[in-house]
Amino acid sequence: MIRAGSDRFQVALGEGELPCRLRGRIKKERTGRVRNVVVGDRVKVALTGPPEDPLAEGIIEEVLPRDSLLSRASAGGGLREQLLMANLDRVFLVMAVAEPEFPSLLLDRFLAASEFRGLEAQLVLNKVDLVPPARVEQLGEPYRRAGYPVLAVSALEMSGLEALREAMTDRLSLFLGPSGTGKSTLLQALQPGLEIATQAVSRGSGQGRHTTSATELHPLDGGGFVADSPGVREFELWGMEPRDLADCFPEFAREEPACRFPDCSHSHEPGCGLREAVEAGRIDAGRYENYQKILASLRDKSS
Fold first, then answer.
1. Number of domains making up the chain
2. What is the tens place of the pLDDT at every residue in 133-189?
3. Do residue 8 and residue 94 come from a single domain?
4. Helices 161-168 and 183-190: angle between axes, nearest 10 degrees
5. Using CB atoms within 10 A as the burial measure, which of 17, 26, 131, 229 is most buried?
6. 161 with 266, same domain?
7. 86-98 mean pLDDT
8. Residue 53 included in any domain
9. Whole-prediction pTM value?
């Protein structure tokens, strides 16, 4: 599946593409989900006419088992699961170092969701031409210490692109991030010829404005595919219990054995080895603060 809308889909078939719609029974199987067929899905399709007929379309008969999945809670209360992409190999979290402001809490939500789903994640710091190198280093350091690869790039100056291109080669990847961080511009720099609309950051709010309206897969000359996704301003975790969250911050694992209680939540318990590590500077204080905020939101949902 290379493009998924509410009721129309584009499926890669051989070297071409086929417009498709869902079989009715598949629509009925989406209980609890915004939709149940997404970009990256492998599907079985029945043709409505001979392949040479330009008016022929496909009927999606079956969605094959997925190797991986990224999802979030739906907007407006988070009562349903919103699938973002299936069968992806790696998530590239594209964050601007400026314009708009660096959203560390949103980034840590993205990373927690990726860890929860067992997905590889890389941080891409874009627009590094806007700030001094020391600021780029400051923003990336907590994530390097946590074990994540961090790539510093500038789509404007075409710097850092070769390392990013290499990391994308022969993989099914997703670009995920807020509006205005330059995801679409970056993709156009990486893969010249892509026709993706872009917009500048709003001067009034300082936030990005949505340009990409649907997730879509694009082939890469060097091999593999990458999906550009609509900008995200909120990201509520789906399917995660409060007790799962600490495991989604990989740098916590080395400090947890020092906790007095084996079921320590690292929020209020006495003798918490993690809090001591924060005070000693072994755990980044900003990441720990975001952990506390995410934990509180998960507790509110589960109560």
1. 3
2. 999 999 999 999 999 999 999 998 999 999 999 999 999 999 999 989 999 899 999
3. no
4. 80
5. 229
6. no
7. 96
8. yes
9. 0.90
